[in-house]
Amino acid sequence: MVSAETSTSDEQLVEATLAGDDHAFAELTRRHKSRVFGVAARFARDASELEDICQDVFVQAYFKLRQFRRDSPFEHWVLRITTYKCYDYLRKRRRDGTAVSVDAMLESGYEPSAPELPAPHPDLERLHAALAQLSPKERLVITLLELEERSVQEIAGLTGWSATNVKVRAFRARAALRKLMENKK
Amino acid sequence: MNEPTPHPDDAGLDALFAQARALRPDTAAAEYAFETRLLARLRDTRSTDSVWAMVSWRLIPFFAVCVVALTIWQSQVVTETEAAEQLVYVENPNAFEAWGTLN
């Protein structure tokens, strides 16, 4: 069994996990969960959905670990899975018709994305409500670009889209967001 | 310069984004004991998968018998149909010709 020492590299923990050591995977999870939770919290509606997304991310990472190529750090690979999972949840939400109007969200005391947020400014509530109205692709790209401060190249790497595609989607997302915000003034 | 060029009226939006960035969600409570819950789910998923794998393997002989039985049954049906056709032809050879003219 691999000890939980920080001196053990991610690569060693990956090898140990592949050899059947679940505690090594628990250590990998402990190291990277904050980043995964941080990104997923921008998309999740509540604590329950946040937990579901993060569990799905690490379950997929566990079962697909053999596909992890060591040409990039483990964290990048996990964040790519996180991006895909968040996108899946956004699409599922849209498909299930659980996306509601901005007015309905604000009237029902909408709690923006993640739990444990300090009391936000009303404009911020409007921003989060408007973000929830965007299409999954627009929401994904604008959140990664503006809230997570990822570069276009990084987003292209995380999503598998071309840099041009990311730029176009970001431009459209901003325009859609601006329009939604102006309508609510 | 690979970032999208902002719209001239986006100053307000940018200010809001800056505020939103500053308010990082505190996920400490959600992260608490996450590894424990994850390992429990992994164990659960593996045991469910192994049950399905076991059931699938055990059902292979049953499906093999079904395939053999269906093959035998089908060959019997074909034989009987051919025998019936021959009988009809022997008793009334014109029936087939009449059938051909109908089509």
Helical residues, percent of chain B? over 70%
| Uncertain parts of chain B | none
* Biggest interface pair, counts: A-B, 47 and 31 residues
Overall mean pLDDT of chain B stands at: 81
Coarse shape of chain B: elongated
Mind describing the biggest β-sheet of chain A? none
Look at the structure and give the CATH class of the largest domain in chain A: Mainly Alpha
Radius of gyration of chain A, whole Å: 18 Å
| The named CATH superfamily of the largest domain in chain A | RNA polymerase sigma factor, region 2, helix turn helix motif
What CATH architecture label of the largest domain in chain A applies? Answer: Orthogonal Bundle
How much of the sequence of chain A is in beta strands?
Answer: under 5%
Work out the oligomeric state of the chains in this entry. Answer: heterodimer
Quick one: how many beta strands of chain A? 0
Element string of chain B (H = helix, E = strand)? HHHH
Brief synopsis:
The complex is a heterodimer of chains A (185) and B (103). Chain A contains nine helices and no strands.
Describe this entry's structure for a reader.
The complex is a heterodimer of chains A (185) and B (103). Chain A contains 9 helices and no strands. Chain A is mainly alpha-helical. Helices cover 69% and strands 0% of the residues of chain A. The model of chain A is unreliable at 100-115 (pLDDT under 50). Chain B is mainly alpha-helical and 103 residues long. Helices cover 81% and strands 0% of the residues of chain B. Chain B is elongated, with a radius of gyration of 37 Å. Chain A binds chain B through residues 22, 25-26, 29-30, 33-34, 37-38, 41-42, 47, 50-51, 54-55, 58-59, 62, 113-118, 120-121, 123-124, 127-128, 145-147, 149, 151-153, 163, 167, 170-171, 174-175, 177-178, 181, and chain B through 2-4, 6-7, 9-10, 12-13, 16-17, 19-21, 23-31, 34-35, 37-39, 41-42, 45.
